[in-house]
Amino acid sequence: MSEKKAKLTAKIIIEKYMSVVALILALILGGIIIFVCGYNPFEAYASIFEGAFIGKTAICQTLIQATPLIFAGLAYVVAKRVNLINLGIEGQLYMGALGASLVALMPVSLPTPVLIVSALISAMLFGGLYAGLVGAMKVKFGSNEVIATMMLNTIAQNFISYMVNYPLKEEGKTLAQTRLFDETAWLPKLVNGTQLTIGILAAAAVCIGVKLIFDRTRLGYESRCVGLSIPASETAGIKIGKVMIIAMLISGAISGLLGGTHVLGSDHRLIADFSSGYGFDGIAVAALAGDSPIAVILSGIIFGALRAGCMVLNRTTGIPTEFIDVIQACIILLVAAPLLVKDILRIGKRRGGRKA
Amino acid sequence: MSDLMSVITSTFSMSVPLILAALGGVLSVKSGVMALGLESMMTMGAFCGVLGSFYSGNAVIGILAGMAGGGLFGLGHAVLSVRYKVNQVISGIGLNLLAVAATTLLMQIIWDNKGSSPQVASIDGNVFTSPITYIMLAVMFFEYFLLFKTRFGLRLRMVGENPKAASTVGLAVHKIKYIGVTASGVLAGLGGAYLSLDHLNMYVRDMSAGRGYIAVAIMILAKYNPFQVLLCALIFGFSDALQISFQGRGVPPQIMAMLPYAVTLLVLAFGARHITPPAGVGCHDDD
User: What is the ipTM of this complex?
Assistant: First the structure.
């Protein structure tokens, strides 16, 4: 009887923490990949852990890496709430970066707080409107948002590349980038001697803000309804189009913040093609977080730690950093496929049973 | 005059991989599985094509390897979205990310170069004499015939429209979907192999560069009809060709590079307003 109960509890725990199980499976898969590449997976993971958590520099590096991931994950979660897939985070963050840069490059001297706040608001506007366009297209024309966002991503990337090659290019230089922003436009550092800025606090604060909107406001309630059932929401008199467009605006504004905090906090200038696919990393972060805004913080830190650790690993052992992208793709697929994870666990169990 | 000729040639050669992938996408969607994984299948096709040619020294074996690589990812997409009921968008995007990451990792391991592979044996680069162009045309006619004139095609469309009903009348719903989606992978893989072994003679990182998504847009715009796929793909091939021929003529290249994507976007907004996919896309036969 008690054994049965224990088995049942174990089953419930596995069901509840399916995404954690999927994460562990993906990490095991990553270990196998490292092994196939000819390295010792245990040493590699120990080295990743050390590079991510041991010491002040390591922890700061983890948080630096986590900042854009948290923003991207949150942006994805907000759109997902109304059942829209925002694959346009990449394009929106480029527009956000442009918005912030235009303010930071203004030839007027403002005190740091005013300048940074207005630059970030401009970033949110640029990113938000770019995403709102997709929402409007979806509502007005029924366009497939997945295709629309993919097209807008390439357009934004090319547009930024054009801006830093022509109108905003630093005079007399060959590189495709703007001039360095004045130091008054730099995000203040959180820990001296590192690159960690208050961006991470902003990311966490926005997550909490979104959580409050989701739980405490009419918009949060309506977005939940629209995500669950469009016909039911229609019957209840919710303006579906409006809710969808607002969700896309917020999602885009968050992506814009990603771009804004990146240019103000780490590059201090606008550079062409600066994003390393943050928009798509967001899907992995959101998947692991189970689409909950608070869990996004933790999930972002986990992925940030993997990245920070992997950078150290790359320096010490030469394992290509791309392997982290492979793990990330595996996490997306495994977290989205609980049935597959169950099948894998069942095979594992059968094997374990045979051995015993 | 030579400009015009080069634009025309370029239009066709830009269109061939798009048409192949979009024809594959039609098979996938008609069987009820969204085709967002096309990008991964093209990437695998391009990469495995070069891999096959690299090891065998024979471009034909390379192309077959490319089709196999695309087919493998097609099968993966089918298993995930049919057997394991993964959200088809997530499955497609996840596979796309996996394909780019895995191919880059493999390039690093095999050739110790993240950016491009060494040059390998390739086939004739002229679009009008390339065998792949004629295979593409044959596939187009065959696919139309298969979908609309044969019993298998009727069944495939029924599975796509209403998997539950198809299952009730005793069709092997899963098997038919597996065939449809795997075939889409093989065709997209061929399109990818065309990129790496016909356009060029090597694999370049992220070679597909969003063509898989453009193929999806083409397929939607073509109302999932093989013949209209040809027509729509030529529009995009033309804007791509125009973009290339305008390079280095005073217009900033970044602005011109936006053209194919902007055209897709506009067409999507204003041209594809009332096109709906088969009713059973994303549905399962047993829930």
Answer: 0.86
